[in-house]
Amino acid sequence: MSDILTSVSGSTLILTLNRPAKKNALTPQMYEVLANALNNAAGDFAIRTVVISGNPEAFTAGNDIFDFLNTPPTGPESPVFAFLMALHDFPKPLIAAVAGNAVGIGTTLLLHCDLVFAAPNALFSMPFVTLGLVPEGGSSLLFPRLVGHVKASEVFLTGRNFDATEALEFGLINAITEDPLVMAMDFATRIGEQPPTSVINTKALLKSGHHQAVSMVIEAESELFRLALESEEAKQAFMKFLSKKSLG
Ligand code: COA
Hints:
Layout: E1 4-9, E2 12-17, H1 28-42, E3 49-53, E4 58-60, H2 65-70, H3 79-89, E5 94-98, E6 101-103, H4 105-108, E7 115-118, E8 123-125, H5 139-147, H6 149-158, E9 162-163, H7 164-170, E10 175-176, H8 180-192, H9 196-208, H10 211-229, H11 232-246
Parallel strand pairs: 2-3, 3-5, 4-6, 5-7, 6-8, 7-10
Antiparallel strand pairs: 1-2, 8-9
Coenzyme A binds at residues 22-23, 25, 61-66, 101, 103-104, 127-128, 131, 241, 245.
């Protein structure tokens, strides 16, 4: 069974993160599949919207921490960077359905989605600082833009979680619903019935004020992120997570 499931329903491509034993932690291979799927969908006239989801227990636990230690991303040619750029440049509506933990890139990818629906058990976090890292995926620009500087600082600098209710207050999600995938598909169908060129142009206009700035921030973040991955602070944080695991 693949770690990323892809299916098509009507004019919607559904991408399902499917590595449940590891809480859908993302590997380079998974980023590559996701990036390719988005790039293909961008040019596929039959696809009008994309829905991204996990399972009822986890959206994703973020980047695989073993990979952070053993095969850290190297730069612009890395699969994670390709995925972030595919996400950032994706021209059609992206809709996320979130249940359980959305850690690290699991939350930052939502900042690139056009609609987000979350289950009551959704728990969001961007613990980059706690892991000795820095924000990524344009989140150091997009998150404060959404919630303001002081709230963004609180979340980033403490690494704390926030729940679905707070995410709704932040404007990170559209609604809290028992079955976010059903609601995501409902909106995907409704948007898929709209004139497609108008939808694409409207999304481009909504992002036009900050699209280029976000591209530059993604690049700057990834350079700092790459350096941080080699730091003692980060290595100690990763070992702490892995040793907890070996202690059971
Ligand atoms: N990378 C690699 N493995 C991970 C992982 C990650 N990011 N997140 C979870 N896993 C693995 C665990 O090691 C465990 O594996 P095992 O069963 O072989 O021991 C399995 O997934 C289940 O995780 P567990 O921690 O037991 O689940 P939980 O429900 O108690 O907690 C989380 C879920 C997401 C809160 C917790 O796993 C976690 O904090 N993960 C790390 C998140 C993180 O820091 N990601 C990086 C962001 S930049």
